[in-house]
Amino acid sequence: MTQRQKKAGHKMKAAEIPMKSNNNIEIVKTQKPPFRPTQDDTKPAFQDPILRSDPIETEEAVLRLPPFNKSNFQSS
After folding, report:
1. Averaged pLDDT of the chain
2. Spatial distance between the Cα atoms of 44 and 66, rounded to a whole number of angstroms
3. pLDDT string in tens for the chain (76-residue length)
4. Which of 1, 3, 21, 61 has the maximal Cβ count within 10 Å?
């Protein structure tokens, strides 16, 4: 604690730890709370739409060709 803090009647918080430096001056360092990663709730869990769908439907959708007009393929 510094002289100013002693005169002001400074009470240390629970997270403050008094430490002495080489010059016999007390330094108050605050301890950080332990790091706790939080669960990311900004995005839903990734799900591959092909893997979670019916494989037969997926295959049919991929192999299905668009309709062709015969008029587009008439030879002159």
Report:
1. 70
2. 33
3. 555 555 555 555 555 666 666 666 666 777 888 988 887 777 777 777 767 777 777 777 777 777 777 776 665 5
4. 1
Structure tokens at 7: 């005169």
Cα–Cα distances in angstroms (integers) from residue 39 to residues 34, 36, 44, 45, in the given order? 16, 10, 11, 11
DSSP string for the chain = --HHHHHTTPPPPTTEEEEE-TTS-EEEEEPPPPP-PPP--SSPPP--TTTTS-HHHHHHHHHPPPP--GGGG---
In single-letter form, the type of residue at position 16 comes to: E
